[in-house]
Write a structure and sequence with these properties.
This protein is of the alpha+beta class. About 15% of the residues lie in helices and about 25% in strands. It has helices spanning about 5-10, 50-55, 85-90, 120-125, and strands spanning about 20, 25-30, 60-65, 65-70, 75, 95-100, 110-115, 130, 135-140. The strands form 3 sheets. The protein has a 5-stranded antiparallel sheet, with helices on one face. Strand 3 (about 60-65) and strand 4 (about 65-70) form a beta hairpin. The protein is extended. The N and C termini lie far apart (about 75 Å). About 15% of the residues are buried.
């Protein structure tokens, strides 16, 4: 097959920077040279640093069932219909809140790490969180009442049940 025949078979876009046909067959030049479309913000800046200063994910709280939930709070996860397959694995799990975040649309998201996850400390250290909406969470009263959390239902261990090897 000749190079010309091969070029005929190869895709539709021959030159991504060449002129493109516009309306009624007119050619449009390189799109990188075109002016961007105007975006009307109504006189308000698209980002307001002063508004950002009022947000503190580490200390912000959200009310869930009349309880203020903030960093360090324990919650039980109940994914809703909008959950993806990964979220459904966490149904009924106990999690620790790491941050309460607000988006630019006014939505609130709660960042969590699972209490029973052996790598929870590592996930928290490098910022790998699971995000849920407040209506998908159930606040839990106290960490000592929740199985699977540090300090829950602890009883003193007798010497015959020591974990270390005596030898």
């Amino acid at each position: 097959m000749s190079p010309g025949d091969l070029q005929q078979l190869h895709g539709l876009l021959r030159d991504p920077h060449g002129p493109r046909p516009g309306p009624a067959g007119s050619a449009v030049g390189d799109l990188r040279d075109a002016e961007p479309a105007a975006f009307d913000t109504g006189g308000a800046p698209w980002w307001d640093p002063a508004a950002d200063a009022a947000v503190s994910p580490g200390s912000d709280a959200v009310m869930i069932e009349g309880v203020a939930v903030a960093k360090g709070s324990l919650v039980r996860v109940h994914p809703s219909r909008r959950a993806d397959a990964q979220d459904l694995f966490f149904a009924g799990q106990v999690a620790r809140v790491t941050a309460v975040l607000s988006d630019v649309d006014g939505g609130v998201h709660v960042a969590l790490v699972l209490v029973d996850d052996p790598a929870a400390d590592m996930h928290d250290w490098y910022g790998r969180y699971f995000y849920f909406a407040p209506d998908e969470l159930e606040p839990l009263p106290d960490s000592t009442d929740v199985p699977g959390t540090p300090g829950a239902f602890e009883t003193p261990q007798s010497p015959e049940h020591r974990k270390e090897n005596p030898s």
